[in-house]
Amino acid sequence: MTLDRPQRILRLAAVAGLAVLVVAPWMVSLYKVHVLNVLIINIIMAISLNLIMGYSGQFAKANVAFMGLGAYTMGLLVTRADWSFWIAWPTGALLAAAVGTLVALPALRLRGLYLAIITISFVLIVHWTFLHARFLTGGASGFSVPHPNYGGLPIPNTQATYYLSLLTLLGAIWMVRNLVASGFGRSLLCLAEQELVAPALGINVYATKIAVFALSGLLAGFAGGLHAVTLQFIDPQNFWLLQLVIQLCMVALGGVASLLGSVLGASIMTLLIEVLRAFKGLWEFAIGAILLVTIVFFPRGIAGLIEHFFPTLRERRHRP
Amino acid sequence: MRKHATRRTLAVLGSALALVAGTATAETPGVTDDTIKIALMVPLTGPAGATVGPGMSAGAQAVWKEVNESGGIHGRMIEWVEEDTGCSAEIGIPGVKKAIYDHEVFMLASGGCSNEILSYRDIVIENGVPFSVWGATNDKITQQPNCCIFRTSLRAGYEGVLQADFARSIPNAERFAIIAQHDAWGQAKYDGVMAKLTEYGITPVADEEMTAETADATPQALRISKANPDVIITDLYPKPTTVFLRAAHQYGLTKLPIILHTSINDLVQLEKDVGIPGAVDNAYTVTFTRDPNAPDLEPWKAKLAAIASEIKLTPYSMWGVTGASVVVEALNRAGRDLTRESFIKAMESIEGFESEMIFGPITYSMDDKDGNKTGMFQKLHMGKQMDVGLTFKTVE
Amino acid sequence: MFFDLLASGIALGSIYGLVALGMVVVYKGARAVNFAHGEVFATAAFIGYLLTANGLDYWAALLLAILATTILGILIERGAYRPLADASDLSLIIATIAVSFMIKGVVRTSYGTRGDFVVYPPIFSFEPLIIQGVFIQRQHLVLGTVAVVCMILFGLFFALTRHGKMMQAVSEDKDAAALVGINVRLVFLWIWGIGSLLGGLAGVLMAPITLVYPDMGLSILVKSFAAAVLGGFDSLAGAVIGGLLMGIFEQMLSGYAGTMFQDIAGFSVIILVLLVRPSGLFGSKEQTRV
User: Fold this and answer.
1) CATH number listed for the domain at residues B157-287+376-389
2) Which of A 285-304 lie inside 8 A of C, CB atoms?
3) What's the CA gap between B182 and C162, in Å, rounded?
4) How many other β-carbons are positioned within 10 Å of the β-carbon of residue C134?
5) Residues of chain B with pLDDT under 50
6) What is the pLDDT of residues B202-250, one digit of tens each?
7) CATH architecture entry for B31-154+294-348
8) What is the pLDDT of residues C158-195, one digit of tens each?
9) What CA–CA distance (Å, rounded) separates A268 from A276?
10) By C-alpha distance, which of A34, A130, C64, A204 is closest to B100?
11) Per the CB < 8 Å rule, is A38 touching B94?
């Protein structure tokens, strides 16, 4: 496989970015480690949402609920049932994937705005359940979550959790890259662009939709568990409409159906919110303005802009 | 071989980090020869962003500005940074980490909502940073073991005791109704009053929920009215309180005693907001801050306006003034050799500290970091707010 | 109790309906879902409050606030819709979300530290009318009447007038409409202006009931959006009926089953309805965009 110049630059940038992320926890303050850790988790969430919204074109917005299910399942199993984090975490992610499959069922019939509102309703009902199932979740006050047990690892817990998030992110990128380049990626593209003719092309629409919801749920579930151990705290507020809108903005800003877009969008949004935190209500205006300018001038987001100038950077996908 | 090398590098890096952290604590963070740096952890965005945060912050700034103008404390000026807590774990945790690790402040002050403080409580205690909490009420915030978190507001559990006892003191009151928000703020207060009622063997005849955003409280009012209570206890933000009282008035519920809580201390304003004559006549609010319309507090209105023009004497700005004065008192007591330990010792030595904003004195000790135990019930009488005491009586 | 809950449900539903109506008008005319609509009515409420609080006559303030939001709608058309008229529906939705962030930032900044909320005086007093033992707020009556009148007026407008038909034509096929000599740009400007005018009207009329606060847009918008989807999203009558149903479900369920259900009552019903009727109650079948 030969790479042309832009591809080499992108690869170099990716390696450099990764190197920065690997050494960062030893160079910057614990506050910045926290911000970077949240940034990594947000990228995983953006990838998870992009899988449904971008790659397969389904206007479903339930991911923040999957994230919550992953976080609560992990947290409750660890704190109430004394499970090890290493078993509780994947269990939470699997549960989120299973619920994702359930949410996919109405998505088999519903589209567009109808799919949007039924998934938003789902998010609100899950949030309401976290709030009201007090005997289990502790309600609005939330509960503390301990660090995972890293055994004899000779680094502090905060950094260890950071590296765990980074490894998970790399796994997610690897998975989605391979998926998109495979035959499954072709089915997804078909779903996104020509859902009505997909069956005629021999694509099992039902199976494809269910699979993509399950995968997206799985990623969100893993991200939820990581979020909980990074904050060392779980409460319902983290899994509500506001986070849903912000994650949507990450995907739109970075670019739909693009890994590069998910990475850039989530990074920019996270840093922007954090940098502007000192400017009170103004961050809302700034985020709105940046988002609007991006969408108006580069409808396919920042990744779309980059790909426009360097077409070879476009992700390889099977075309039907 | 290579694996070993990586492991060793990591170990070296880890211990290097520990070393850096070790040297940082050797001298007191946030204290220089002529300054003391304090982080004001206040919600500036989120559900309580518009009021609670700016109010508490302005109250504190008014106090500290005055202190600085008269020469500071033992030759040091108070410097402050505001960090938004957003009333949430998501924004509060990075906020507190930024204050501790990046701003390297001497101490934290104010705090916003209970859930947000609970989410970063462990970080504060691990680092041994003194934290003076001014508004949040959840019992767990100051629960032992607790090296360094002090509170000037009433603990929710205790406020619940006051509400429950007051309700019980109403002659012939047997049927109790409660309506509360079930978010983190309301839940702390709701749990407090329910714990006390349960202790008395009382089950409320109506137990209703309302959110801060509820636009119409007819179902709540109807259900309470159907339960035919003798008294109604409310734990609602000022806005839903307004919405609830309007609906309650329709069904004659405002003829019953209605018990409010510490976030509402201006009944004159409440009556204006509700906009229906008579709807607040039987409202009794428990508060630890005094009537903001009292003439002797008048000078504070100008001091607050000098910080930000729209800040009024609300419970929030009054909490800020109270808390900031306690911090000043402890800094004074700690003397010129200021360390976090000497400050905590100084806080623990405070006994009977009085502020013109609050009813009772503040007293801390090593095992009790809830310094404020004085509440007062007030009600409107002829357009003025009157003290009632801690048990029910009709004001004439 | 039943009739009291019904009356309050209708009252609450009129708010959702009137807000939904503004969204549906923009959708019918410009094929765009305006997620900035919540900020549009919040802005109207806030401007109306500022003007009345500064001593301006009640009705003058009301009219000026509505005028201001109409202009806001036109600005949204120019700044966010026109440049994206040919972009994907998702881009358009994101653009309106971006606009909503911007407006909310401005409102919050100018709101400053006024407190949790500010009160907006009602048109009539808060003393309710009592009809057959059921309490009805006069402000609710105004809201309900305005919602129904607007629905009928706009229904007639789209069905009978030349301008209305022009708007329909433009929304169905922009290029063909331009070919037959319709000034497409001007029509879109009108549609966004009218949609926001409806939002402004809803804002100043609901403000005395919901009270005014910087975040008032979100929760009411989500419920109104849900109501519009329930009704079918491209049906004016559907928007108002969907709104009323949302309001009635909400109050009935919380009145009988428990007030803890008030916030999700409407959404649970929506899930059930959409599982049975995937295009809402009155939506046309072909309508599957976004």
Assistant:
1) 3.40.50.2300
2) 285-289, 291-292, 295-296, 299
3) 53
4) 15
5) 1-3, 5, 14-25
6) 999 999 999 988 989 999 999 999 999 999 999 998 899 999 999 999 8
7) 3-Layer(aba) Sandwich (3.40)
8) 888 888 888 877 877 778 888 887 888 888 898 999 99
9) 12
10) A34
11) yes
Report yes or no: A115 and A104 within 8 Å, Cβ to Cβ. Answer: no
**C112 and C121 Cβ atoms separated by less than 8 Å:** no
A136 to chain C, closest Cα gap in Å = 17
CA dihedral A81, A84, A85, A88 (to 10 degrees): -60
Q: Are the C-beta atoms of C8 and B218 separated by less than 8 Å?
A: yes
Residues of A in contact with C229 (CB under 8 A): 113-114, 116-117
Q: Do A31 and B101 touch (CB under 8 A)?
A: yes
**CA dihedral in degrees (B253, B258, B262, B268; nearest 10)?**
70
Torsion angle, alpha carbons of B164, B165, B171, B175, to 10: 20
The full set of domain ranges for chain B reads 31-154+294-348, 157-287+376-389
A102 vs C contacts (CB less than 8 Å): none
Could you tell me the pTM of the whole model? Answer: 0.91
Whose CA is closest to B280, among B266, B289, B270, B294? B270
Q: Which fold has domain C2-276?
A: ABC transporter involved in vitamin B12 uptake, BtuC (1.10.3470)
CB distance from B306 to chain C under 8 Å?
no
Positive or negative, the Cα torsion across A162, A166, A168, A169?
positive
| Dist CA B87 CA B138 (whole Å) | 14
**In the numeric block, which tokens belong to residue B168?**
């019980």
Instruction: Name the residue among A26, A30, A280 with its Cβ closest to that of B44.
Output: A280
| Alpha helices by DSSP H, chain C | 2-30, 37-53, 58-76, 89-111, 138-160, 162-172, 174-179, 184-210, 216-231, 236-256, 265-276
Q: Do A296 and C288 touch (CB under 8 A)?
A: no
A291 vs C106: CB contact, 8 Å cut-off? no
Hey, which chains touch B, using 3+ CB pairs under 8 Å? A, C
* Domain boundaries of chain C, sorted by first residue: 2-276
Q: Which residues contact C84 (CB under 8 A, 6 or more apart)?
A: A295, A296, A299, C91, C92, C95
| Cα–Cα distance measured from residue A297 to residue A308, given in angstroms and rounded to the nearest whole number | 12
CA distance C142 to chain B (A): 16
What's the rounded Cα separation, in Å, for the pair B361 and B372?
A: 7
SS3 of B267, please? helix
Q: Is B115–A235 a contact, with Cβ atoms under 8 angstroms apart?
A: yes
ipTM for the predicted complex comes to 0.90
* Residues B232, B279: Cα–Cα separation, whole Å: 14
